Amino acid sequence: MLTVPEMGLQGLYIGSSPERSPVPSPPGSPRTQESCGIAPLTPSQSPKPEARAPQQASFSVVVAIDFGTTSSGYAFSFASDPEAIHMMRKWEGGDPGVAHQKTPTCLLLTPEGAFHSFGYTARDYYHDLDPEEARDWLYFEKFKMKIHSATDLTLKTQLEAVNGKTMPALEVFAHALRFFREHALQELREQSPSLPEKDTVRWVLTVPAIWKQPAKQFMREAAYLAGLVSRENAEQLLIALEPEAASVYCRKLRLHQLRDLSGRAPGGGRLGERRSIDSSFRQAREQLRRYRHSRTFLVESGVGELWAEMQAGDRYVVADCGGGTVDLTVHQLEQPHGTLKELYKASGGPYGAVGVDLAFEQLLCRIFGEDFITTFKRQRPAAWVDLTIAFEARKRTAGPHRAGALNISLPFSFIDFYRKQRGHNVETALRRSSVNFVKWSSQGMLRMSCEAMNELFQPTVSGIIQHIETLLARPEVQGVKLLFLVGGFAESAVLQHAVQAALGARGLRVVVPHDVGLTILKGAVLFGQAPGVVRVRRSPLTYGVGVLNRFVPGRHPPEKLLVRDGRRWCTDVFERFVAAEQSVALGEEVRRSYCPARPGQRRVLINLYCCATEDARFITDPGVRKCGALSLELEPADCGQDAAGAPPGRREIRAAMQFGDTEIKVTAVDVSTNRSVRASIDFLSN
């Protein structure tokens, strides 16, 4: 096997068997203008992945930041008492009747681009700016969705403020993370003055499980820029997947801390007083062993029908319904240590609460005209933010059984701007529009019927239910009877009712934690204290590299034939590291060896490819794309003759890749000297 000739790979031996000797380097390939000379190794079978126990560093405190699309917050716990989770202080400002343990994900920068404020403070200050002055300030909201939707995410990706001005997305995210860092460290100093700041905090950042590797790397780069951790101490930062964090928290909940949407109590009362879910699992398993045919006993003994039903595999679904996305994961509780195993790769899509906001904006376009709404947003950005805040307040009160209409305040700036632009008032616009379920109230507000408000939810809610039903149809998920509904959007009575109505009829128990909006944040803290709790994950994609294999007539297509020095090779072969949906244990390694062929070579670059299927044969197959690059940085001393006197081109660098963590990780070692080699995978410079 040999590598496919690629730009930046000059003078590189590559192979999966370090015991094989390389053959003389062939001449440059005529395949493409990017081709260059690559020395092949004798074809051999790839080694099986090896498991290695992950090393855990020691930290005094874990601080988790739940960076959400619509709201964000932080929480922490000390290593001395890891399950005592401290929530952040109440935020200044806020909306009446809304808990302030999170703050809106809103960032305000001065006209010069300097940080001004974040959260409620940013929102309220921007609201109070003079309309003309506000046009110069940079106000960002719901900007996390840009990272999810960007198909070509790089470190130079730009974000657009509400006034239309742009700035690098990395700087926007770094400003926000820096705010949380300073806020959290200040609170830690006040609570524990003797706590040293340096190297004692493990930081945890939450991201949707459906985010791809570039988005995860982007958040890590933003954390470096914000000063949360340094590149040299990268292990101080963990990326937590949001539904995983929720799952970790839910398994610790006591039964009385849950609400079954079917109306049945999750627990029998006595266990709800003192036992958590995972301890109830263990109790139920023991009782089930003694009384295999006595389900009645389990219920009467206080374990509860809910947990008795889960004994056929102890598996459940977590549906994280947030502001921007819905994230689904399926876990199985393993005994005896209560670790978690992922049964199917994370799935979901852009079906968060912002979908309801977009539906409201489309409604306004139908009434007042799309051109007017576009102009108003651009010329009166602060007033547009006021309007969205007014709608958010009414959206929270929407419910399937609400009887009365809802009034939504229109800012005076909106009413005045419309009259100047159109020559008539908003009441006239409502009368002339084809929208008959929105009226103009005598109080000077938009008056919307409950049915109309609920209709705004339907596209988003239907998307969530469809994704859950698609997941439940998978053979890997058969037998699941419990669904945890978590995330900020899961607080919505409209969503809760729709999910229960659609899925309850098929026997699925839908359960909501009482602190549903804080489930991910608290779970991220617990995950930071014990990141090994999720023992097995499913790879979302197939990853590998392009290689040359011996050409086999009848097996390989003729157009892939390459003849070098009389030898027949098949080009563009996709050598797989890990397959899509493959179970990968935490700490499990895939090892490959790479040999620099030039004296003085300082850097080795190998292109990585990925696809959504597991049957791709060539890197040119449909759906296969270049997704990143593996980089090996060689020290000057490593480029000369080794201790055994071997020529410099024969030095072996052994790379070990891990696909079972929340991020793909790589380490490397120089076999001849047993010294570590700086290794990294870059998904952002593709």
TrEMBL record:
Entries under InterPro entries matching the protein: ATPase_NBD
Region Disordered: start-end pairs: 1-53
Any one GO biological process: endothelial cell migration
SUPFAM superfamilies assigned: Actin-like ATPase domain (SSF53067)
Gene3D superfamilies associated with the record: 3.30.420.40, Actin, Chain A, domain 4 (3.90.640.10)
Designated name of the protein: Heat shock protein family A (Hsp70) member 12B
Species: Macaca mulatta (Rhesus macaque)
